[in-house]
Write a structure and sequence with these properties.
Pfam families: Peptidase_S28. One of its GO terms (molecular function) is dipeptidyl-peptidase activity. Residues 1-24 form the signal peptide. By secondary structure, the protein is of the alpha/beta class. The chain has a domain at 63-215 and 475-504: 3-Layer(aba) Sandwich (Rossmann fold), CATH 3.40.50. The protein has helices at residues 49-58, 115-120, 123-132, 153-156, 160-163, 168-185, 200-211, 239-250, 252-270, 274-281, 291-307, 315-324, 332-344, 362-371, 395-406, 414-419, 424-431, 481-504, and strands at residues 63-71, 84-92, 105-109, 135-139, 193-198, 218-222, 435-440, 458-463. Strands 1-2-4-3-5-6-7-8 form an 8-stranded mixed β-sheet, sandwiched between helices. α8 crosses α9 (252-270) and α9 (252-270) packs across α12 (315-324). The model is unreliable at 1-27 and 40-60 (pLDDT under 50). The chain binds 2-acetamido-2-deoxy-beta-D-glucopyranose (NAG) (4 copies). One 2-acetamido-2-deoxy-beta-D-glucopyranose binds next to β8.
Length: 508
């Protein structure tokens, strides 16, 4: 069974599940690295979520929750299309300058998570809104949280007839309706709207600006790998190639030890009592059923460490310190176990809880469907993923697995057909405006991102050392200077858009 990456910027419950025949719940065909601002890898809990949630709750927040009567299917007129569901969104009024001023509306486009999780991460919005007297609106993505059609999650996820309305294009249309509704409700039809999103949410933000330019005058798309589809294979080999590069940059010998470990795991597992020995060596909470289970978990650990390598705990460095710092004579597998312990240190684990086996989160279930419908990202461990076992993406295999799970085939070419991706420079230079693509180049997703400036107003704001979605998170005293600068650049650009918009619309 292949393993895959989950793309999500705004989710918490995102440890990587491993597919096993023992799972009684709906199985999850695709897992892997997450598109998520925050990891929550197994027992992993001390990575800064606390800081952001404190900031959210300690400030004098005035969030109000609303429900919009959302149309199930925006794109045809069959009777089923007219079914509606309650679409949740939240408004924070506390900084707003009001409809008659030049105050903007900041809209966070929900990603593959319930709204509560979407609201936790984007400190950037909360911190910049007071300076610009902005209204903040958070909109949930359909089929997540409370914004689920057909009465309940269970009903909505029953089969492909129900899940078929769960697409990125429907979600964008939902956002357009909600934003226009909010503007009307607040008599703020002329106020400038800027959409924000992180990771998958960032892809949505950039696509929203291109599809609904009359609704949003600008977009900040953080760590949005819009060029990771179809035949737009990243030049340097993809997600796992960057993970390998990140480790190599910290320590060549650490990288080499990890590279060596896969074969050793395989060989040991083949021996009589090999799995027992592996279980003992890795202090697993329950006996290992296969070497693959262990390898899959280790791969996701390294991926997560690279994707979220940031203050206060740089986990790539921590893993490599454990591996390189092992006493002379320590075996390769013992070193890898030391890495597992180091990765989890700070949390209270007495054994290596491989796979976790808590029930799959709604993000896990929802993203699995999304990957099997329109979000077909060809992520594999190719030749440049030097630290990992060779396991390239196999589209046919992917399609078949999706079909057996959902009874429908994914559409691997649809995203590029709908939103483009080829010759994006030439196309967007003449056609688009007001999009910031922000990336940290250490983020394995960055190689599917837009990394250079396309025009004066379609710009890439990158940092060499940055990780996934770092710019949109709350600022903290641990922030390196380059992320402080990155955020300052972004807000200056956004202010420029707003000034121009207000001039054009005679607002002052
Ligand atoms: C999905 O379930 C609904 C409700 O039970 C049913 O009406 C529909 O025919 C099912 N669709 C498929 C493709 O099985
Ligand atoms: C590996 O990376 C190099 C340099 O970045 C690139 O030119 C090459 O195409 C990549 N190979 C694969 C198989 O992706
Ligand atoms: C951690 O584990 C130890 C020993 O099992 C226990 O006494 C302690 O209460 C745990 N601490 C936390 C914060 O869970
Ligand atoms: C793109 O332009 C912006 C704004 O002028 C600038 O801050 C940024 O450094 C440029 N990005 C790149 C990758 O050159």
């Amino acid at each position: 069974m292949d393993t895959f990456i989950l793309l999500s910027c705004l989710l918490i419950q995102c440890f990587l599940m491993i597919i096993t025949p023992t799972m009684s719940q709906q199985s999850i065909p695709f897992e892997g690295p997450r598109l998520s601002a925050h990891p929550d890898f197994k027992s992993f809990s001390d990575h800064g979520i606390k800081a952001s949630s404190t900031s959210t709750s300690s400030s004098n927040t005035k969030f109000r929750t609303y429900y919009y009567k959302q149309t199930l299917d925006h794109f045809n007129y069959r009777p089923d299309s007219f079914i509606t569901f309650n679409h949740r969104y939240v408004i924070d009024f506390q900084y707003w300058g009001g409809a008659k001023t030049d105050a903007p509306i900041f809209v966070n486009l929900g990603a593959e998570a319930p709204l509560e999780l979407d609201m936790k991460d984007p400190g950037f919005l909360h911190e910049q809104a007071p300076k610009l007297k902005a209204l903040i609106v958070f909109i949930e993505h359909r089929y997540y949280g409370q914004s689920v059609p057909f009465g309940s999650r269970q009903e909505a996820f029953m089969n492909a007839s129900r899940l078929g309305y769960f697409t990125s294009t429907q979600a964008l249309a939902d956002y357009a309706e909600v934003i226009l509704h909010v503007k009307k409700m607040l008599m703020a039809e002329r106020s400038p709207v800027v959409v924000f999103g992180a990771s998958y949410g960032g892809m949505l933000a950039s696509w929203f600006r291109l599809k609904y330019p009359h609704v949003a005058m600008g977009a900040l798309a953080s760590s949005a790998p819009i060029l990771y589809f179809d035949d737009l294979v990243p030049a340097d080999g993809g997600y796992y190639a960057v993970v390998s590069r990140d480790f190599k940059a910290v320590s060549q010998s650490c990288h080499n030890t990890i590279a060596q470990s896969w074969l050793e795991i395989t060989e040991l597992a083949k021996k009589p009592n090999g799995l027992q020995q592996l279980s003992r060596l890795f202090n697993t909470c329950s006996p290992l059923k296969s070497a693959t289970v262990l390898k899959t978990d280790l791969i996701s650990m390294y991926a997560s460490a690279a994707q979220y390598n940031r203050a206060p705990v740089y986990r790539v460095n921590r893993i490599c310190e454990a591996i390189d710092g092992a006493p002379k004579g320590t075996s390769v597998l013992e070193k890898v176990y030391a890495a597992v312990v180091a990765y989890d240190s700070g949390t209270n684990v007495s054994c290596y809880n491989i796979g976790g086996y808590s029930p799959p989160s709604e993000t896990t279930k929802g993203w699995s469907w999304q990957r099997c419908s329109d979000m077909v990202m060809p992520i594999g461990q190719g030749r440049n993923a030097t630290m990992f076992p060779y396991s390239p993406f196999d589209l046919q295999d992917f399609m078949n697995t999706c079909y057996s799970e959902y009874g429908v085939y994914p559409r691997p070419h649809w995203i590029v057909t709908e939103f483009d991706g080829h010759d994006i420079d030439l196309v967007l230079k003449k056609f688009g405006s007001n999009i910031i693509f922000s990336n940290g180049l250490k983020d394995p997703w960055s190689n599917g991102g837009v990394l250079h400036n396309i025009s004066d107003s379609i710009v890439a704001v990158t940092t060499t050392e940055g990780s996934h979605c770092l710019d949109l998170l709350y600022s903290s005293s641990d922030d390196p200077i380059w992320v402080i600068k990155q955020r300052a650049t972004e807000i200056e650009i956004i202010k420029g858009w707003i000034r121009e918009y207000n001039l054009m619309h005679g607002i002052n």
